[in-house]
Amino acid sequence: MNKESYRYPKTTSGIKTFNKIVSTGKKLFAKNGYQATSINDIIAKSKIAAGTFYIYFDSKLALYLYILDLYRVSIRKSSADATKGLVHRYDIERAGIKAFITYALKDPLAYRIIWESLFVDFDIFKNYYESFADSYIKHLKDFVSNGELRPDLDLETLSYTLMGISNFVGLQVIFKKDVSEVELDRIIDEAMSILDRGIFVK
Fold first, then answer.
1. Domains in the chain: boundaries
2. CA distances (Å), 185 to each of 108, 169, 173, 178, 193, in order?
3. 175-184 long-range contacts, Cβ below 8 Å, gap at least 24?
4. Fold of the domain spanning 67-197
5. Which residues contact 175 (CB under 8 A, 6 or more apart)?
6. 121, 60 Cβ separation under 8 angstroms
7. In this structure, are residues 78 and 102 in contact, taking their beta carbons and an 8 Å threshold?
8. Fold match between 12-62 and 67-197?
9. Among the residues of the chain, which ranges form H helices?
C-alpha cells in the first residue's frame, strides 16, 4: 500500500521500546489526530532518544500504517475466533457483530485510529475497507452456493451493508457507555432481526 516501512526488533529491550512507540503513537493519533501529532511529540511522550524512532520507523506515516494494520489483523482474528466452528451464516454474522463490538469496547481508540485514515490519505481509508469487503465477499459466496443466501444479492453491496451494521451498531453500544452483556445481546439480536426479516411491511 505504501513504501513507508518499519523494522521489527529482535531483542527484548528493542521490542519493549518498539511497543512503547506504538502505544504512544496510538494514543496521540487518537487524541490529537494524525496531522497535529509530530514525531517529536511521539519521541517526547515515549521518553526515547531522538534517533531511536528512526531505528524502527521510516516516518510518522510508517508508524500510523503499522498501527492501522495491527487493527486490521486483530479485528479479523477476533472475528475468526468468535465464529470458529459455526456453520450457519446467521450464527456467523451474529457472532461476528458481537466480536467487533466487544473488541471496540475493549479498545475504544480503534474507531478513532481507523477513521483517522480518511484524513491521512483517502486511498489508505479506501484500501482498509476494500480489503475487508474483499474478504467478506469470498466468505459470502460459500453461503450463496449452499442456499443460505439469496443468489440475486450483489455481494459487494452486501459486504458493505454488513460492515456498516457492525460499525454503527458498535457506535450505538459505545455511546451508551456501560452496557451490560444482556443489553449488548438484545441490541445485536435486534440488528439480526432486521437482517433476517427486513424493515418493510409487504
1. 12-62, 67-197
2. 19, 12, 11, 14, 12
3. 179/105, 184/98, 184/101, 184/102
4. Tetracycline Repressor; domain 2 (1.10.357)
5. none
6. no
7. yes
8. no
9. 12-32, 39-46, 52-56, 60-83, 89-106, 109-120, 122-145, 155-176, 181-197
Burial class (CB in 10 A: 0-12, 13-18, 19+), 45: middle
CATH code linked to domain 12-62: 1.10.10.60
Give the CA distances from residue 82 to residues 78, 177, 195, in Å, rounded to whole numbers and listed in that order.
Answer: 6, 23, 19
- pLDDT given at position 108: 85
Distance of CA 153 to the CA centre of its chain: 25
Write down the pLDDT at residue 1. Answer: 42
73-77, 107-111, 145-149: least confidently modelled range = 107-111
Any idea which residue has 513504501 for its cell? 3
pLDDT digits (tens, 9 = 90+) for 124-149: 999 999 999 999 999 999 999 999 99
Distances, alpha carbon 28 to alpha carbons 18, 35, 201, in Å: 15, 10, 48
Whole-number pLDDT of residue 184: 96
Distance from C-alpha of 117 to C-alpha of 64, rounded to nearest angstrom: 9
Distance CA 199, CA 55 (A): 54
Query: Which cell numbers hold the place of 169?
Result: 451498531
**Three-class SS state of 3:** coil
